[in-house]
Design a protein that fits this description.
This protein is α+β, with helices and mostly antiparallel strands. It has helices at 4-7, 31-45, 75-82, 85-90, 92-95, 151-159, 196-205, 207-216, 229-239, 270-285, 319-323, 330-337, 340-343, 349-359, and strands at residues 8-11, 18-26, 51-58, 65-72, 98-107, 137-145, 173-182, 185-193, 240-248, 257-264, 292-300, 303-310, 362-368.
Length: 372
């Protein structure tokens, strides 16, 4: 029998320590500027709650290749920092020195220490209890806002483009792209088999995608210039909406009904809300009668989006199960974490149905690659 833990392929909420690896390829002659930028960054990050240590390493084979590793008590404090506007501004001097970067994030599962080295203190995070059984799929999302009044035009542009080629290389392919809108907010969720960075680079280079990105530029609330690498980097850094939890109840359904629910959290409560919804989805995955087959939670600051694949039409479900507030006292906790105006009443079935209708994002396009 499959256990709940085996169904969770991704989670930022298991409390385990986090190792972050940043690979960098520097421009020629930029080493000194890079070291100065790193020293400033190091002094700033040292005071960030949850940060334990970091190292700067230079390749012994290629002096242009560098590595920064850092360790954190757990994933949530790192995600809160790396997704902050403070971080975006802090790393700007670093990027001017760098040709290419790649960030990798790992939970610490096992470690070896010498007899003279004391074990890590429990207060500094624990080891990941057991390996997660992945499905080889990486999930990621982007979110941004468009100028009020332009929503219908943007939706038409985003719905009408030709899909890029799914195959990236021998090991990477695009599986699914789902695009939603809630008011003037756009959310684009992607599923990639293999290397996410390679897939995103592949998509950005496709002429049909570049044409769409250029077409929506005049309607964006945040200006960007995709011909300027720094402008593009800042935009996509701010737009990143990381997946913090994924759980699947069973086999992937070819004819699933995909919805995205938008949860504007109270200021400072986004991570706590995402954690609560993750726990609810873990319970639902163990219930054979649950209408939810799979759930992915994306969170950045106080924006929480929950992507759900349903076995039955939304109108045939119980709203509290789909919203994620099923069970004693769950609605009260939920209301305390949600923006007051967005939550509204959650006492009666009618109020729950009204909230569900408001939070259900408009589906613009949902595209699967062949044989996915």
């Amino acid at each position: 029998m499959t256990t709940v833990s085996e169904r969770i392929s991704q989670s930022a909420f298991d409390g385990s320590r986090l190792r972050v690896v940043l690979l960098l390829d520097l421009h020629e002659g930029a080493q000194q500027r890079f070291l100065e930028a790193y020293e400033y960054l190091r002094s700033q990050v040292a005071s960030v709650p949850g940060h334990l240590t970091d190292q700067l390493c230079q390749s012994i084979e290629n002096p242009s290749q560098w590595l920064i590793t850092s360790e954190w008590e757990s994933a949530p404090p790192f995600l809160a920092w790396v997704n902050s506007e403070e971080h975006v501004k802090m790393v700007q001097p670093l990027h001017s020195c760098v040709r290419n970067t790649r960030s990798l994030r790992f939970s610490v599962l096992r470690e070896t220490s010498s007899a003279a080295t004391a074990a890590p203190e429990p207060s500094k995070g624990r080891l990941q209890s057991e390996p997660r059984v992945g499905d080889g799929v990486v999930r990621h999302a982007l979110t941004f806002t468009v100028k009020p009044g332009s929503e219908s035009m943007v939706a038409e542009i985003l719905a009408g483009y030709d899909s890029p080629q799914a195959r990236v290389d021998d090991t990477t392919r695009l599986r699914r792209t789902s695009l939603f809108m809630h008011g003037n907010r756009v959310v684009r969720a992607v599923e990639v088999q293999g290397d996410l960075v390679a897939a995103l680079r592949h998509v950005s280079e496709q002429p049909e995608v570049r044409a769409v990105e250029e077409a929506i530029n005049p309607y964006l609330e945040q200006d960007r210039d995709l011909t300027d690498p720094n402008s593009a980097r800042v935009f996509f850094t701010r737009a990143a909406l990381p997946a913090v939890h994924h759980v699947a109840a069973g086999q992937e359904l070819r004819d699933d009904l995909r919805h995205a629910l938008y949860y504007p959290a109270k200021e400072g409560c986004g991570m706590a809300l995402a954690r609560m919804l993750a726990r609810q989805d873990e319970l639902a995955a163990d219930d054979p009668d649950s209408p939810i087959d799979a759930s992915t939670i994306f969170q950045r600051d106080d924006i929480v989006v929950r992507l759900i694949d349903l076995r039955v039409p939304l109108d045939d479900t119980e709203p509290d199960l789909v919203i994620g507030v099923h069970g004693p006292r769950k609605r009260g906790v939920f209301k305390r974490l949600m923006d007051t105006d967005a939550a509204g009443g959650l006492t009666t079935d009618r109020e729950l149905a009204h909230f569900l209708a408001r939070s259900d994002m408009d589906l613009i396009t949902d595209r699967r690659a062949p044989d996915s």
